[in-house]
Amino acid sequence: MATEAKVDPMHQFTIEPLFGTDHWALGGFNIAFTNSALWMLISAVVLYAFMLGGMKRELVPGRWQMMVETMTGFIENMLSANVGKEGRKYLPYVFSLFMFILFANLLGLLPLGLVGVHPFTFTSHFTATGVLAIMSFAIVLVVGFWKHGFHFFSLFVPHGTPLPMIPLIFVIELVSFLVRPFSLGLRLFVAMMAGHVLLEVLSSFVIGGANAGAFFMGLVSIPSFILMVAICALEILVAGIQAYVFALLTSLYINDAEHLH
Amino acid sequence: MPQISQLAATYSSQIFWMLVIFGAVFFLVGRGMAPKVLETMEGRDQKIASDLAAAEAARREAEAQDDAWKAAAAKQRGEAQALIAAAKADAAKAAEARLAVAGADAEAKIAEAEGRIAAARAGALAEIETVAAEAAADIAARVAGLTVAADAARAAVKDVLHG
Q1: Share of chain A above pLDDT 70, in %
Q2: Does the distance separating the beta carbons of B40 and A29 come in below 8 Å?
Q3: Chain B partners of A37 at a C-beta cutoff of 8 Å?
Q4: In total, how many domains does chain A have?
Q5: Is residue A12 in a domain?
Q6: pTM over 0.90
Q7: Does some domain include residue A100?
Q8: In angstroms, what separates the C-alpha of A214 from chain B's closest C-alpha?
Q9: What is the ipTM of this complex?
Q10: Cβ distance A67 to A53 under 8 Å?
Q11: I need a surface site. Which of A12, A162, A167, B115 has the fewest CB within 10 A?
């Protein structure tokens, strides 16, 4: 029974200050270097190392350079398909966003528990995803008002709206526009958290069933374990899809700001 | 749910480190490396495109030269054939001329020979007339005892022969 009490599927999301940085503060705000920050740093470093392999700039690319170029070309294609030729100047941002989220998601799935260290998926925290979402939203606002001024508000009145409907449509469109940063940040956070909780719950089934004897092990642990393997594969897929969705929606929103429908 | 229960204690650290680290990623990776990767890709695409264009141009050049060579060959063949035809015509003309000369020669010889034959025949005929007249005069003298003048006998024979 003791083991059952130990498995807390939410424990994995606990943020802990590391290296005694508990009391670091900036302007009265706590900025402790936490496990979350550590994994942000690890993601950034791994991403940098990955990109370094693409910096050989050979005419005939090797495998690594090919991978880097595939990713860059993928984002470039997405931007040119969704935003057009103006999409080019957003490539640094959208590419960083996509790769950073992708690496965070994938690194958070690494089975490092086997060697005693615990990966932390900072994209399962809305404080982290929210920052990215608000950044994307802020870019949309800045670009939109910079390029179109108050004409940007015409985004909220689709072409061909009958005159009496305009106030109502305007409010609806405004609300749906303002919800964007929340949906953007929450989608990633919820998807990552749900996957990790599911894996943790299933693993608690595996351990609990095994502890409860051979019968429960056959009935609960083994099916749960098979399901876990499948869900691990699914989670890898989700890690990619969520990063893609985040980047795709960001580029769609940027398209709104650039072209107003 | 630590995301909510720890919110008050950790939000500032989360936001701070996110901004710092994502900012570093943006400037190092996004602005530093990604454009260079794209540049490499574009350079490669351009190189491939220009190489293809050069290959295409070379192919066209080769085709043009081939066409020119074919045209030159056709022209030379035509000239050679014209020369052959002219030579054939010349040869035919020369042969014809020689044949004509030889034919005329032969014809002259034939005519001469025919003349000779005709003369010989006339000579022979005259001789036969003479012999026949003499024989007739002889026969007349022996059988009838008539003396026929040579001229009269000749005239009589001539009448019979040419009768």
Answers
A1: 96
A2: no
A3: 13-14, 17, 21
A4: 1
A5: no
A6: no
A7: yes
A8: 33
A9: 0.80
A10: yes
A11: A162
